Backbone:
């Protein structure tokens, strides 16, 4: 089956990480030749310590496989502590996220990092883009009056949460190739022409998480907060731009081709922690 993949414009009308045993010196007994030669009364010599048994000998400390992360003092950063959208400039928000990423990297805190990425995207970065319009060739770097196409918007969000990518290059790719930038090919889940309800149910059963989604003529992000599956994308309908809506009722989410990939997979979060550059369409 040949699949048509979207280009950055996102229009339905356009193609698309053993110490040695201690030997105790022999005790010099009273009247021995050694005692007589020394001129000392061996009866006054201190009692020796008993020889250690095999169970009492110490084994050497195991060599670590790699550098040990520094001991953490205090809690790790929380995305909830980031400035709310609109309270600071977008550049300041992105800088605060990068500072937090460096803290997570210092302690290799993978589980906590995945939760942070989820919340930083859903609670801070995505809301900041509200009101930005869509255009087929929209390439806006930051929220505002300039339009942004769907591929550029996905690339911007994931770059701004801390992934090292060529945002302009990623934004021009077909939707599946965008996903292959952030996730191993083997982790992509293809649904083909399956009904939207089946896709939404699959994501709902996966539990809380964040996915990239590639459609026949569109790209976006899907997240499950445990109560609802939401599709967030730069919407071409009426050029309304970035919006989040219930995936079950989203018109653009209904398509004859769907592929999804977790943006919180261990390999993906490992790349986020390492600050590793990601080649477009070719996740390590």
Residues:
């Amino acid at each position: 089956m040949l699949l048509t993949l979207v280009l950055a414009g996102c229009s339905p009308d356009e193609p698309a990480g053993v110490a040695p045993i201690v030997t105790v010196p022999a005790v010099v007994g009273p009247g021995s030749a050694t005692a007589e030669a020394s001129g000392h009364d061996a009866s006054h010599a201190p009692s020796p310590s008993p020889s250690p048994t095999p169970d009492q000998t110490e084994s050497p400390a195991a060599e670590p496989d790699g550098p040990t992360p520094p001991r953490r003092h205090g809690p790790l950063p929380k995305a909830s502590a980031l400035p709310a959208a609109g309270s600071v400039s977008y550049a300041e928000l992105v800088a605060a996220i990068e500072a937090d990423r460096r803290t997570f990297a210092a302690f290799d805190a993978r589980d906590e990092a995945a939760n942070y990425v989820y919340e930083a995207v859903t609670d801070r970065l995505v809301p900041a883009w509200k009101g930005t319009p869509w255009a087929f060739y929209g390439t806006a770097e930051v929220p505002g009056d300039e339009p942004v196409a769907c591929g550029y918007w996905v690339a911007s969000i994931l770059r701004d949460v801390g992934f090292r990518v060529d945002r302009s290059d990623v934004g021009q790719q077909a939707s599946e190739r965008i996903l292959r930038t952030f996730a191993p090919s083997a982790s992509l889940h293809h649904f083909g022409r399956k009904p939207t309800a089946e896709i939404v149910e699959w994501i709902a059963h996966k539990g809380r998480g964040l996915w990239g989604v590639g459609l026949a003529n569109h790209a976006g992000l899907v997240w499950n907060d445990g109560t609802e599956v939401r599709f967030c994308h730069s919407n071409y309908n009426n050029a309304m731009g970035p919006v989040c809506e219930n995936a079950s009722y989203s018109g653009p989410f209904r398509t004859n081709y769907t592929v999804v990939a977790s943006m919180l997979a261990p390999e993906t979060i490992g790349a986020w922690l390492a600050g590793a550059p990601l080649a477009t369409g070719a996740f390590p």
Observations:
- Residues 24 and 51 are 6 Å apart (CA to CA).
- The two ends are 27 Å apart (CA to CA).
